Amino acid sequence: MERKRVGIVLFEDIEVLDFCGPFEVFSVTRMNEGRRREEPSPFEVLLVAENPGPVTTTGGMKVLPHYTFENCPRLDIVVAPGGWGTRKELNNPIMLNWLRARAAEVEILTAVCTGAMLLGFAGLLDGLHATTHWRSLDWMRDSFPSVSVEYGKHFVKDGRVFTSAGISAGIDMSLKVVAHCFGEDIAKATARHMEYPYPESDARRIRI
Fold first, then answer.
1. How far apart (Å, rounded) are the C-alpha atoms in residues 154 and 78?
2. Cα three-residue angle 133-15-85, rounded to 5 degrees
3. How many Cα atoms are found within 13 Å in the side-chain-facing hemisphere of 164?
4. What contacts 161, CB < 8 A, 6 or more positions away?
5. For each of the chain's 208 residues, which pLDDT tens digit applies?
6. Which of 69, 121, 146, 207 is the most exposed place for a label (fewest CB within 10 A)?
C-alpha cells in the first residue's frame, strides 16, 4: 500500500486540538478494520515546524516536530492548524513561502480554524469558498475580498482545498478528507473507532 504523507504544520502558541484532532483521525484510519493492529494507516502523519526543538502550544504542551521546513520530505496533504500563534505567523515570510511551495505539490491543502488565515495571507484561498473560527469570520471577509466566506458552514471543500471552523471542526474536516481519499465507508469506520459522530452535515454547529 502506498501511503499518503500528511504534513501538519506546527508553530509557537498553536491550538492543541487544531493539530491533534487531525493527527488522530489520519493516524487511526484503517483500510481493514479487522486488521487494525496488524496494518498501518494509509496515511503517514508528520509534524513539521520551521525549526527543530520543542514547540510550545497555547496550553503549555511541548511538542517535538518530526521534520523542519528545510528537511521535510515531499507531502501529499498539508494541514495548517490555527491558534493565537497564527497572528505572528501571518507576518513570517518563511512560513508563508513554505506553504506556497508545498501547496504547489500536494494533492490536498487543508486548514483548521485560523489556520485558514495562514492560507489566505499566503494567497492560497483567492477565488475560493472558505471558513474559519466563528470569531474570525469577519476578519477573513475583510482581509480577503476575493474569498467567499461561509458563515454557516462547519467545514468547506472547494476543489482540493478544505477549510474548517474552530478547533474541534478539524476532526470533522479530516474525516471528510479520509472520505475523499478512500471513501465514506472507511471514514465512517474511522469515526466509529474514535467514538465520534460522523459529520453527515456541513452546517456550523455554533450559533453566531
1. 19
2. 90
3. 29
4. 108, 109, 110, 119, 124, 125, 128, 130
5. 789 999 999 999 999 999 999 999 999 999 998 889 899 999 999 999 999 999 999 999 999 999 999 999 999 999 999 999 999 999 999 999 999 999 999 999 999 999 999 999 999 999 999 999 999 999 999 999 999 999 999 999 999 999 999 999 999 999 999 999 999 999 999 999 999 999 999 999 988 8
6. 207
Paired residues of 48 in beta bridges: 9, 67
**Where does residue 152 rank: exposed (0-12), middle (13-18), buried (19+ CB within 10 A)?**
exposed
Read off the C-alpha cell for 188: 465512517
Could you identify the residue written with the cell 474511522? 190
First to last CA, the chain: 43
d(CA 204, CA 34): 33
* Cβ proximity of 155 and 179 under 8 Å: no
Listed in sequence order, the DSSP H helices in 73-203 are 86-89, 93-103, 115-121, 137-143, 169-182, 184-193
